[in-house]
Fold this protein.
Amino acid sequence: MTATAQQSASKRHLLLASDRIDQSSELVKILRSVGDVDAMPTSDIPENPQGRFSGVVVDINLRSPESVQRVRKKLASRAYSDMPRLFVLAEALHHATMQAWALGATDTIARPFSAADMLQRIRASFPANDGYDETDRGKMLNRGVAAGHEMMVKIFEKMPAGQPLTMDDIVAAENKILKAIKHSSLREWLTAVGCHHNDTYRHCLFVTGFAVGFALHLGMRDDDQRRLVRAALLHDVGKAFVPASLLDKQGKLTSDEIAVLRQHPRRGYEALAAQGGFPPEMLDVILHHHEFLDGSGYPNGLRSEQISDIVRLTTIVDIYAALTERRAYRPAFPHARAFAIMENMGPKLDQQLLQAFRPVAMGAH
């Protein structure tokens, strides 16, 4: 293959769909520095892209029902279902982000943005080739699962041996995990990590997957998605200081063993707080993910307004993951049974948030 042919083969081919073509000229110029661009009105989006595009950049007025409906209809076809989509927002407002995610966004960027910001998003979101196929999805999923496993090894094997955990470790893993789930699916993530032989690793990666799925469903901004992934990855870090024989016990725990296990939130919190460099909200999740709104949780017996939103959300995905995982002493509960158990927990959980989680859980099975 000649150098020219190699360069062509590695170039992105992007579809820019816009209802403001006159305002998108600067965007076209930026995109052309990383690939070929077909810029067109939303009405001209082809019914079948025939594998030509690495991804779609959507630059529309989300306040226009006509534009939104047109894009929804065009991108709803099977031909676009697996293609990454970057939505350019007129402003960084929560409702705009939620609407973009409802239209199938895999990432968003808000104006005003620099050329460097846009290029970073393009390189992260879209593969550098002339098409986006199942091979790309498989590779991203495998890289995400591998990154998650490596994170678990650092937490549960290297940390107790004295090797400190760093935020750089977390950020490197979160990028690959987010990309894996966005470009495949929560169901594929759960299937892949469900094969893991280690129950503790498997549980943490299940919780992380459900957290990502929930964040995407709620239309969280990119930064908030990352905050949630970090919290989910680290929520059980204190189990690194619980004897492995206890974590791996093939059967129900005694009351004394339960008391030891219940020390894990505080032990994880104290370890990372002493090490330093971790945001307060991550430490909050690590310490309080077993607290309940009615004050019956542990270790501090917090109540209602004392429990932050990120902790409430992590608690829900943590419990749901635990119920739907197979255990040595019981099979996995089916979705309906797990949800019924959580609904019957009543005032212990944020029931409004639990109902918001229902479609995420249903879609994963």
